[in-house]
């Protein structure tokens, strides 16, 4: 993509409404624009990040055998009356009356709809275990939406639902999601720590929040250092095997948010192993048994011919929230530092002198070759000041910068910069190409 | 995917509420379920088709240089008051009041929001031409939703918007979309015919509908046979070149819907060249000049320093509607016949006797090899009657069926069936593998 053609309205000034760094940077770097309180439009640069995060979430859900569906955003109130949550949900639910005066709502979550779909579609024990997910926009009418996409009203969420004959089956589904979540966040360069959680309005017995560490996190967290040392991506996961040992390994050491903090247990950890940090919730998993299947009569016929009320769980990841969370975890004074897995482009080419024929030729050549090799690259081909180009590249945080000036170009050289470490190397254009096209 | 694990709740009986064939088949084949009047959930099989259609739409939009964004579903009423459409839109607009008593709405279209984003982000003539699109759910509160996803209330639409300094620029954008639309529909195996259209509530001067031919189409259409003979996919399109000759070639011969039909012009065509058929609208493009940019003051500074009010166009494709439209255009008595480009799986393997070791071994082997080669395949590994398996495979319409029985398996043979032509061939399993893995 050429900067001269790319719709990237960056801001020079810090927007006054943004109180946290991710919100500030998302507005400044032209990722999003607020269109109403707590509601955002994703501009081309932000959209690319959102899609990358969504792709990672999807790949890891698919790997567990979870099947993707897509439920609508607008739901009938009827099912919520059946489950008993219609009144209970309160003002956070966006209630709507359609032209025929029917009570509708914008789904804040989908337990009722998926349970309805499954009870109508599944007949016997042969139809379970089942794991279904979707990635869809939700709406929660927060009193005071803030922090940009971190606490917006309309937000993109991945929610999965499991259906099993009994607790043992449900726990297997829970474990699959638990492990998939560890992998999902790790692939985005995040250290996510599972912490036992209250089940809140979704209800149920067994629940974990996944909290990532970020200096600017919303709440205090306390944990054993072991969590920061584990590496789930190097493990070979077979989702059909017993995952309990992995889940156990990730739930035995101490880890708690402020609300559930137990100072006595924490203080029992060796001082150098104690981590006190800030955290951001990015995922939440629940086992809630028959809380919805009971009132909604979601049953299948068991092997013995008797009807069995299904055991269920639900498993959420805040997809749009993660864009903010990644920034909270990875930025500096100059701007965002994208991990390669979610970066909107892998590299940026900075043409320092568009009027210089050799300089532009080298840039064009590199751009053409990278594009051909399907490396996503943003080529700043605009005739503006070099300082402006550098500032924008740092702000938007692409992992690699290839800076081409007239002097270097004359020798076929470029400056190759790692956005994260700041390390700069003068290398040949060919070498830059090789590095960027290498896996 | 194994049928034993796939959530595919098919129906044996024709659902009484379904009046048209695509609605009937989408319910019967387990593609969608209605969750409220005119609102559908996409089950795993239907979701795969929806994603394939969305992918083709996206690839063809991207090819034109159009940049993807994502606008929210919920909009503030303020912008619609600015454009003057808030009152005009009538009851089809789903109006919402949030907890702070602010007037909101579920976007039926996005001219206002995109114009607002662009007027705030673009400053000078250097920021145009610009083409932006998104693929997002829309809501139109139809009085009488019907025909399944063909006329639902919540539907997925691709809408693109162009911004230019003048009519000439806007026409270039219009032509890009015109050609991209021809390619998009052709890739789905559809014959789409552009027909001059009324501009309706969107307003403007220049507009074409893209109508596909289907026996069960919603309206009568009349055109020259030439439209059914053209092949846009074999052309090498350069979107930066002048596309006017292509657009001209596709707009010169007679083509009109019922409403705009001119019997005198039609009758002037040689009788054997006259096509009277039924059609379904799947896309609509508009040039509407300054209709929105004027009231919303969307301007950029021109080269001479003077402000220029932008010329705009909008370009829609009914993504979820296309799933129904493809079925209307391609089905038989037994069920759906998916074109390969949008099929949920390329092939189905039918194991005729799960209890037969050689038969199951051959199936498992073929399934493993196809999966490894990334060919999407549905393997019916269930222990149910062969007749039931055949009926379901025909109903869900995968392009190729590989039928494996004990007798053939003993000789390494399978029956290889083309769903569309019905042609059956007895070939070796290896040959079947080769055919399915060949591009």
TrEMBL record, chains A, B:
It is found in: Cytoplasm. The keyword Ligase applies. Residues 38-339 form the Aminoacyl-transfer RNA synthetases class-II family profile domain. GO terms for molecular function: proline-tRNA ligase activity. Its EC number is 6.1.1.15. PROSITE patterns: AA_TRNA_LIGASE_II. It is an enzyme of class 6 (ligase). Pfam families: HGTP_anticodon, tRNA-synt_2b. InterPro entries: aa-tRNA-synt_IIb, aa-tRNA-synth_II, aa-tRNA-synth_II/BPL/LPL, Anticodon-bd, Anticodon-bd_dom_sf, Pro-tRNA-ligase_IIa, Pro-tRNA-synth_IIa_bac-type, Pro-tRNA_synthetase. Keywords: Aminoacyl-tRNA synthetase, ATP-binding, Cytoplasm, Ligase, Nucleotide-binding, Protein biosynthesis. It comes from the Bacteria. It catalyses: tRNA(Pro) + L-proline + ATP = L-prolyl-tRNA(Pro) + AMP + diphosphate. Homodimer. Belongs to the class-II aminoacyl-tRNA synthetase family. ProS type 2 subfamily. Catalyzes the attachment of proline to tRNA(Pro) in a two-step reaction: proline is first activated by ATP to form Pro-AMP and then transferred to the acceptor end of tRNA(Pro). This is Proline--tRNA ligase. It comes from Dongia sedimenti. The gene is proS.
């Amino acid at each position: 993509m050429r900067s001269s053609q790319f719709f990237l309205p960056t801001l020079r000034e810090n927007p006054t409404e943004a109180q946290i760094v991710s919100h500030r940077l998302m507005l400044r770097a032209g990722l999003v624009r607020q269109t109403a309180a707590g509601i955002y439009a994703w501009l081309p640069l932000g959209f690319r990040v959102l899609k990358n995060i969504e792709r990672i979430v999807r790949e890891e859900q698919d790997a567990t055998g979870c099947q993707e569906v897509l439920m609508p955003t607008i739901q009938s109130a009827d099912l919520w009356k059946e489950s008993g949550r219609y009144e209970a949900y309160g003002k956070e639910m966006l209630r709507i009356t359609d032209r025929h005066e029917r009570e509708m709502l914008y789904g804040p979550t989908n337990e009722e709809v998926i349970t309805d779909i499954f009870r109508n579609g599944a007949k016997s024990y042969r139809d379970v275990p089942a794991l279904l997910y979707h990635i869809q926009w939700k709406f929660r009418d927060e009193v005071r939406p803030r922090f940009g996409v971190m606490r917006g009203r309309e937000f993109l969420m991945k929610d999965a639902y499991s259906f099993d004959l009994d607790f043992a089956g449900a726990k297997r589904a829970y474990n699959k999601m638990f492990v998939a979540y560890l992998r999902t966040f790790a692939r985005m360069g995040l250290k996510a720590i599972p912490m036992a959680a209250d089940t809140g309005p979704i209800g149920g017995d067994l629940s974990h929040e996944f909290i990532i560490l970020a200096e600017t996190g919303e709440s205090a967290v306390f944990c054993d250092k072991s969590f920061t040392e584990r590496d789930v991506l190097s493990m070979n996961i077979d989702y059909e095997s017993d995952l309990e040992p992995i889940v156990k390994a990730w739930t035995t050491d101490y880890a708690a948010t402020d609300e559930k903090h137990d100072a006595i247990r924490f203080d029992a950890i060796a001082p150098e192993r104690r981590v006190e940090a800030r955290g951001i919730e990015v995922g939440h998993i629940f086992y809630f048994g028959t809380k919805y299947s009971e009132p909604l009569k979601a049953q299948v016929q068991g092997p013995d011919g008797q009807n069995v009320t299904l055991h269920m769980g639900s498993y959420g990841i805040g997809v749009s929230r993660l864009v903010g969370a990644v920034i909270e975890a990875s930025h500096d004074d100059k701007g965002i530092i994208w991990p390669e897995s979610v970066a909107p482009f892998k590299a940026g080419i900075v043409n320092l002198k568009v009027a210089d024929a050799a300089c532009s030729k080298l840039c064009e050549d590199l751009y053409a070759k990278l594009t051909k090799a399907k490396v996503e690259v943003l080529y700043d081909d605009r005739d503006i000041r070099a300082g402006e180009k550098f500032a924008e590249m740092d702000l938007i945080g692409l992992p690699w910068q290839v800076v081409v000036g007239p002097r270097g170009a004359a020798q076929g050289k470029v400056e190759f910069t790692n956005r994260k470490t700041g390390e700069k190397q003068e290398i040949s254009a060919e070498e830059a190409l090789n590095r960027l096209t290498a896996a």
